[in-house]
Amino acid sequence: MTTTVFIDGAAGTTGLEILGRLQDRAEFALLTLDDARRKDPAARREALNDCDVAILCLPDDAAREAVAMIDPASGTRVIDASSAHRTAEGWTYGFPELVGREAVAGAERVSNPGCYPTGFLALVAPLVRTGLIPADWPYTVNAVSGYSGGGNALIDRFAREPDIAFRTYALDLEHKHRAEMKIHAGLEHGVIFAPSVVAAYRGMVVEVPLHLGAMDRETTADRLRDALREYYAGSRVVRVREGGDLSELLLHADQPANDGMELHVRGNAEGYHARLIAVLDNLGKGASGAAIQSLNLMSGLDETAGLRLSA
Length: 311
Ligand SMILES: NC(=O)C1=CN([C@@H]2O[C@H](COP(=O)(O)OP(=O)(O)OC[C@H]3O[C@@H](n4cnc5c(N)ncnc54)[C@H](OP(=O)(O)O)[C@@H]3O)[C@@H](O)[C@H]2O)C=CC1
Ligand SMILES: CC(=O)N[C@@H](CCC(=O)OP(=O)(O)O)C(=O)O
Hints:
alpha/beta; Rossmann fold; Dihydrodipicolinate Reductase, domain 2; 6-stranded parallel β-sheet; 10 helices; 13 strands; 21% strand; binds NADPH dihydro-nicotinamide-adenine-dinucleotide phosphate; binds ligand 2; NADP; Semialdehyde_DH_NAD-bd
């Protein structure tokens, strides 16, 4: 059976990536609006109600507006890539590895996780659930993203100002991803989040440094890595790298698209300090790849069908 998909916001950064991943898939038929009609409310309303699955690649307000345009009787299911519904009631958080594949497969409304929260939650949520690290800990998240993470506006800015090599931001210590991180990791305190952007188009590194020695429990970096490896056993999307020798992780300016995510747990020799590190593509598992993974599950397909995964 063919699933009809409408991408609202198909001309944007995330929308184009999703389009690219769906174009050769026989299981899906694409409903598209030409440039003259892509922002026309009447045309969007019609498409939103005529499709089986609407994927929203819009700013938050436009995403809320799109959801309001859908007649519940139309049967349209939604995957929202924006941050409008990530902690909203009635929405399933589109992180199959954390909420369960069946939950996503059966959901009517799926909220795609944010790019930074994807890395953070992949590392921290399973460890908090198993009690290896505490829920009532003041976690810090340091992260670096490619500039496509800021959509067309940031892509244009990096084109206009090519001398920017590094930009740290959210200096008021507020960021819309903080709520999502706290709620879906089951934490008691909000995190300190230090995001930044480098002069690379795509890709990101999300890191949680841990003072294991202060945690009042028998946790070592090796135990954390083993627990994550067990948790993600069988996943072809999330992979936990072995300990072993590793002196650096690199983000290249022209990284290819990647819908997978690599997790690293590094510890010092004494066992007091650890660095939990997620390496992913903001436009892959951080956005479009995750949306395709959810779409596959909602369509009864293998979750990795059409994903760009390295061997
Ligand atoms: N980029 C990333 O790495 C990630 C993005 N996201 C989220 O995905 C969503 C899309 O982001 P991104 O693709 O980066 O943003 P872009 O700015 O690149 O694209 C947004 C698209 O939506 C269109 N649009 C805006 N308002 C309307 C409207 N009322 N009706 C129809 N189309 C509209 C824009 O058109 P126009 O340009 O003509 O205004 C543009 O084509 C955002 O909510 C973002 O937060 C989530 C995870 C990662
Ligand atoms: C580099 C950059 O600007 N990144 C964006 C987040 C990108 C993303 O994940 O989008 P959502 O906000 O929809 O989750 C930011 O910090 O706002």
